[in-house]
Amino acid sequence: MGRAPCCDKASVKRGPWSPEEDDLLRSYVQNHGTGGNWIALPHKAGLNRCGKSCRLRWLNYLRPDIKHGGYTEQEDRIICSLYSSIGSRWSIIASKLPGRTDNDVKNYWNTKLKKKALAIQQPQQPAQAPQQCASSVQPSPASASSSGGDACSFGGPAMYSSHQPAAMHQQAPATLAPLYVDGGAMPSAPSSLPEFSPALPPPQPTGGVAINKSWINKLLGAGEFPIGDHLFGGGGFGSLLLQDHHRAITSSSSLQAELSACYFPNAQAEMWADVKPPAGLCHSLT
DNA sequence: AATTTGGGCAACCGCTCTGTA
DNA sequence: TTACAGAGCGGTTGCCCAAAT
User: Fold this and answer.
1) Does A284 reside within a domain?
2) Is A40 in the same domain as A136?
3) Average pLDDT for A254-266
């Protein structure tokens, strides 16, 4: 007994959008806005499409400020840095890249940047680590897709997705080897919280994939995040990123703890409650 | 030249979150 | 307090096209 579908999939058009449909949607949204109701929008706009499809098309393709392709080195570093810190929270990562969408960033990561990062990382692995790393970046059994995401390639915190706790528990720690910078430890979490089942104990430094400093430097570009970076309007997340980077070099645990505490909603945030996130960073997600 | 293979990306699916009655 | 509807998100699929054989 699932909830009713948002639309009758048999009667709405699916698949690629035609230029005429794009024009209809674009002109309607530009003239009337979304009205806060995507479900009703296609009917009003004269489109035979699901509201969700309209929303996706607008957000990912038709918005006037969208950029496609042409990622800069700086954007690469931002993506890598945030992915290593918060995992596959694409909407958050995309929000720090003006003109980029979560879908675009996600595709870019899955098809290009992940390989690029791994190519840099691989030669840096200690002798016994590659097996763990290799296993950690294999697509999960549930994902045979060539572009399927993996939640474990870079970030320990990615293990603690706010979504899908069941799936999280199904992912055995063996396939989700967390990453640590030079043996740095993740903050331990209280074990009493229900979401934190014994099936997935707090990550321990042992068994994880070590990232050495040179790899972080290489990947992120040491010292290249300017304070008050224009991308972030100065201070705020930009300076946090810079702090993040330096902490990643010196003490990854505090960085990960801060971001983890910030981005994990509800119980997961409480789980890390003893770690105070930077002021003003967590308004919308907890 | 024809076929196969793999990468890139748009779109869909299904779930959680959030607001509201 | 609860149930429902809609929005938002991350994961996955499938098509298209270029490179390789």
Assistant:
1) no
2) no
3) 38
Nucleic strand B contact set for A 122-151 (CB, < 7 Å): 146-147
> In this complex, which residue's CA is closest to the C1' atom of nucleotide C8?
A91
Element (H, E) at A179: strand A179-181
Query: Which residue's structure tokens are 């003239």?
Result: A31
Please determine, for residue A91, whether its predicted confidence score (pLDDT) is greater than 50. yes
Residue A41: per-residue pLDDT: 84
How confident is the model at residue A129, as a pLDDT? 36
Distance of CA A227 to the CA centre of its chain: 23
Per-residue pLDDT at A14: 82
Give me the pLDDT at residue A132, please. 35
Residue A279 lies in a domain: no
Do A35 and A58 have their domain in common? yes
> Is it the case that residue A49 has pLDDT exceeding 50?
yes
CA A194 to C1' B7, whole Å: 42
pLDDT of residue A258: 40
Residue A9 lies in a domain: no
Q: Cα–Cα distance between A171 and A169 in angstroms, integer?
A: 5
Which residues form the domain of A40?
19-62
Q: CA A281, CA A260: separation in Å to the nearest integer?
A: 12
Is residue A133 within 8 A of residue A121, CB to CB? The reply is yes
Q: How many domains are contained in chain A?
A: 2
Q: Which nucleotide is nearest to A149 (CA to C1')?
A: C11
